[in-house]
Design a protein that fits this description.
3 helices; mainly alpha; about 110 residues; elongated
């Protein structure tokens, strides 16, 4: 009887451990995806840095007002939140009404 109780307790622990491992694997995958997006963006920024510096040396113009909006829209398209509620976190492929509302407000 005691052996059965110990076996059931071990099965419960094993089940909890399996759930924990599944959660960690999901989080790991999300972090890998975010890391990939960030590395891609960093490469884009570094490659564009030289052209921006050359343009700045030729002519100094203030940044366009629309450039910030364009950057936020690009981040949203890359799968990140741009709303104040979840800024910078991954959207996991789902649309966010807060982000869409914010982007539409900026566009008007």
């Amino acid at each position: 009887m005691e052996f059965e109780q110990q076996l059931e307790a071990m099965q419960e622990q094993f089940s909890a451990l399996k759930q924990f491992v599944a959660l960690m694997m999901e989080e790991h995958k999300a972090l890998e995806t975010e890391n990939h997006h960030l590395r891609t963006r960093l490469e884009e920024l570094l490659s564009n840095e030289n052209s921006v510096q050359a343009a700045d040396e030729k002519k100094e113009n203030p940044l366009d007002i629309g450039e910030g909006y364009d950057n936020l829209a690009r981040l949203y398209q890359e799968g990140f939140h741009v709303c104040h509620v979840h800024f910078g976190s991954s959207r996991k492929g789902e649309d966010c009404l807060f982000c869409l509302s914010f982007l539409n407000k900026q566009n008007v």
